[in-house]
Specification:
Blueprint lengths: L1 E3 L11 H10 L5 H22 L4 E3 L7 H8 L5 H4 L5 H10 L1 E3 L2 E3 L4 E3 L6 E3 L2 E2 L11 H11 L4 E6 L1 H7 L1 E2 L5 H22 L3 E5 L9 H16 L5 E5 L9 H6 L4 E5 L6 H8 L6 E7 L9 H14 L4 E5 L18 H4 L5 H17 L9 H11 L7 H9 L11 H12 L16 H11 L5 H22 L16 H6 L1 E4 L6 E4 L2 E3 L3 E7 L6 H9 L6 E5 L1 H6 L9 H21 L4 E5 L11 H20 L7 E6 L8 H6 L4 E4 L7 H8 L5 E4 L12 H12 L20 H21 L1
Parallel strand pairs: 1-14, 2-8, 7-9, 8-10, 10-11, 11-12, 12-13, 13-14, 19-20, 20-21, 21-22, 22-23
Antiparallel strand pairs: 3-4, 5-6, 15-18, 16-17
Bound molecules: glutamine (GLN) and zinc ion.
Keywords: Amino-acid biosynthesis, Metal-binding, Methionine biosynthesis, Methyltransferase, Repeat, Transferase, Zinc
Catalytic activity: 5-methyltetrahydropteroyltri-L-glutamate + L-homocysteine = tetrahydropteroyltri-L-glutamate + L-methionine
GO biological process, one term: methionine biosynthetic process
């Protein structure tokens, strides 16, 4: 059996591409050298896959920033404002990716959005009137030939037209329907060129197919692909889907003239059933995505071989073993994780280890005709591994989860009653002012943290330093006149890592970077076992900060859904169970904060929206039904006097407003400054009950907002929000900003609130 990889990470084992690009951005590296680094990385990645025994190796999965952006540029989707800069092709590309400020002009980047249900961000393509839709680039052909010159046959992988058109923004006079013909013919030109270059297989990625589709979507898909399939010549075209099953178009897709179809058996809960019910055409190759491209656990060989055996019982089509999606979403290699004990390490497979698994599984599957593969040493070793994960079960945690009574997640009394009690207890003015939690992480703070990590300063010295920082930020917030203060989060590098490091059940890596966007990478912690809190995590910082002021000091925690969504979850128990364990741990912290005299507690759910299932029909049952109760469990034990806040870094929750209200927080802050406040209409329309702090200014920009513009934003908000429900705050934490920007901005914000109060 052959083995195929959908896509391979490109940032480099030691993030070589990140560092080279960043040097190029700072004009410290010439374009030719950046290109050289890129070539070296591509060659290294192809060679590695070939040496591991992968038969179908992707090319064109490389990108300097983002492959969606690459595809847009390849087909001429370059908006006018970038064209007029008159930069080189590479710099125009980077201007679209990151914005440009210099002699040639001043333009924002294309917006970024989360790539389907992952934490990776893509640049949203834009089709304006300047778009000349045609094949204007050669990247996939160049990279195919580059590999070929190195003696490696690859399958060029390109984002397909159906997904591209559905992801794009239309800002000119043309809408989606107007660009179908030119785009399909541009893709057909590309296919012809690749075919002429000798490509055996060409992979077109269409993750949009796993979403809810109707007849019109399917008709559009057919129209796009007719000319493409006609253009293939001697090449074979693989339709690659991932991030779910294609239940709405499975039969349509099987009826089209593709040479291969890539199906996701990991996230595609109905994939196996679809194949069993409707069969799979014999004249096509099935690329069976059975090795998880999104998580870091070793593959369960017996399950995988079992699935392959079942598939072979149902179809005579040739099967190629594949990753379920690109390996972009997992780190490179375990090789550098030398601090991880072997009894842990052997349970993980990052991208490189997954290559070995694919090759090994393909060999085992080969045996299916003759032998029982389960008796081979490889299968036996894997079976032994699956049974044995040290320290992953904590009976006490499990017993506690089970013992939570059914009603325990309902906070009493009801929110309107609490609202009255809290207004009296906290004595806050109308339009109370606050911030989202973090204050600038200065160079000094980062360097002290690094010195502590390297053992250059003692824990005591480090904590003294942090206390000084807290005292200073409390003093300045008092001076500016904010109403609800924060301690500044100086002790945290990251809002998930900080808690993960203090909770039992997590494992940390040192170099396991995953690209988040462009040159930015994250290092998600791994949830290894049952999660619990051995001791308080934030109480000493919050109570120290509270001791410095009479104003309420807001305790600051990360919520269970966000901790889960920004970690690698377990596969041996459902994520809903893990989330409940985390919820109980955070609940303990909430109650300890309350007992220590903290009267306002914010539980951030910055990533709650992110893992909302791709199909609307799955939202409630597959996600909200457990995610929202997990949040409720965190604060349901609080006294009515304690005010619970939550925060979300986005405002695209118009579709799930009832669920957000059901979180039953007392106050929610969210991003609003860039979204034209549309969300407020939806809140009013849905009779949203929670008090709201729509961000009054954008912290993602270095600009200092004037008192007047904040006043105007508040006035617009008051058209939609009752005065006794409106909070005044920036739209996110301030940690990425400088003090020089933060304090004048907050001063203006407080002044705007005071003025508004005076008018009442
Ligand atoms: N409390 C966090 C902060 O202010 C929230 C960060 C976030 O929403 N991403 O930094
Ligand atoms: Zn935020």
């Amino acid at each position: 059996m052959k083995a195929s990889v959908v896509g391979f990470p490109r940032i480099g084992r030691l993030r070589e591409l990140k560092f080279a690009c960043e040097k190029y951005f700072r004009s410290e590296l010439p374009a030719a050298q950046l290109d050289q680094t890129a070539r070296e990385l591509r060659l290294a990645h192809w060679t590695m896959q070939r040496d591991a025994g992968i038969d179908m190796i992707p090319s064109n999965d490389f990108s300097f920033y983002d492959t969606t952006l690459d595809t847009a540029v390849l087909f001429g989707l370059v908006p006018q404002r970038y064209r007029v800069l008159g930069l080189s092709a590479l710099d125009t590309y980077f201007a679209m990716a990151r914005g440009y400020q210099g002699e040639a002009g001043d333009v924002h980047a294309l917006p970024m959005k989360k790539w389907f249900n992952t934490s990776y961000h893509y640049n949203v393509p834009e089709i304006d009137d300047a778009a000349e839709i045609a094949l204007v680039g050669t990247k996939p052909i160049d990279e195919y030939l580059e590999a070929k010159a190195a003696g490696i046959e690859t399958k060029p992988a390109i984002l397909g037209p159906f997904t591209l058109l559905n992801l794009a923004n239309y800002t000119g006079s043309r809408q989606l329907a107007d660009v179908v013909e030119p785009l399909a013919s541009a893709y057909a030109d590309l296919i012809t060129r690749l075919s002429d270059a000798g490509a055996g297989w060409i992979q077109l990625d269409e993750p949009w197919l796993v979403r809810d589709l109707d007849k019109r979507d399917i008709a559009l898909f057919r129209r796009l692909y007719a000319p493409i399939l006609d253009a293939r010549g001697n090449s074979r075209v693989l339709l690659q889907t991932y991030f779910g099953d294609i239940r709405d178009c499975y039969r349509d897709v099987c009826a089209l003239a593709f040479d291969g179809i890539g199906l996701d058996f990991i996230e595609g809960v109905q994939t196996a059933e679809l194949v069993a019910n409707y069969g799979f055409p014999q004249d096509k190759v099935m690329f069976a995505g059975l090795v998880n491209g999104k998580n870091i656990w070793r593959n369960h060989y017996a399950h995988t071989i079992g699935t392959i055996a079942a598939l072979r019982g149902g179809t005579r089509a040739p099967i190629v073993l594949s990753t379920s999606c690109s390996l972009l979403h997992v780190p490179y290699t375990l090789e550098h994780e030398t601090q991880l004990n072997d009894s842990y390490r052997c349970h993980f497979a990052f991208a490189e280890e997954k290559l070995a698994e694919l090759a090994e599984l393909a060999e085992l599957a080969e045996l299916l005709d003759r032998d029982d593969p389960s008796s081979t040493p490889a299968a036996k070793a894997n079976a032994a591994l699956m049974g044995a994960r040290p320290d992953s079960v904590d009976e006490a945690v499990r017993a506690r989860v089970v013992a939570v009574p059914a009603g325990a997640q309902t906070r009493l009394p009801a929110r309107p009653v609490r609202e009255v009690i809290q207004k009296k207890e906290l004595g806050l003015p109308l339009f109370p002012t606050t911030t989202i939690g973090s204050f600038p992480q200065t160079q000094e703070i980062r360097s002290m943290r690094a010195r502590r990590r390297h053992g250059e300063i003692s824990q005591q010295r480090y904590e003294e330093f942090l206390r000084d920082q807290i005292a200073e930020v409390v003093r300045r917030q008092d001076e500016v006149g904010l109403d609800v203060l924060v301690h500044g989060e100086f002790e945290r590098n990251d809002m998930v890592e900080y808690f993960g490091e203090r909770l039992d059940g997590f494992v940390f890596t040192r170099f396991a970077w995953v690209q988040s966007y462009g040159t930015r990478c994250v290092k998600p912690p791994i949830i290894w076992g049952d999660v619990s809190r051995p001791k308080p995590m934030t109480v000493s910082w919050s109570s120290y900060a509270q001791s410095l002021t009479d104003k309420p000091m807001k305790g600051m925690l990360t919520g269970p859904v966000t901790i889960l969504n920004w970690s690698f979850p377990r596969e041996d128990i459902p994520v809903r169970d893990t989330t409940r364990q985390i919820a109980l741990a955070i609940r303990d912290e909430v109650l300890d904060l309350e007992a220590a005299g903290i009267r306002v507690i914010q539980v951030d759910e910055a990533a709650l929206r992110e893992k909302l299932p791709l199909r609307r029909s799955d939202w409630q049952r597959e996600y909200l039904d457990w995610a929202i109760p997990a949040f409720n469990l965190v604060h349901s034990g609080c006294r009515p006097e304690t005010q619970i806040h939550t925060h979300m870094c986005y405002s695209e929750f118009a579709d799930i407003i009832p669920a957000i209200d059901a979180m039953d927080a007392d106050v929610i802050s969210f991003e609003a400054s860039r979204s034209e406040l549309e969300i407020l209409d939806s809140l009013a329309h849905n009779r949203f009950e929670t008090e709201v702090g729509p961000g009054v200014y954008d912290i993602h920009s270095p600009r200092i907002p004037s008192e007047r513009e904040i006043g105007e934003a508040l006035a617009r908000m008051l058209d939609k929000v009752a005065p006794d429900k409106l909070w005044v705050n920036p739209d996110c934490g301030l940690k990425t900003r400088s003090n020089a920007e933060v304090w004048p901005s907050l001063r203006n914000m407080v002044a705007a609130a005071l003025k508004l109060r005076a008018q009442r």
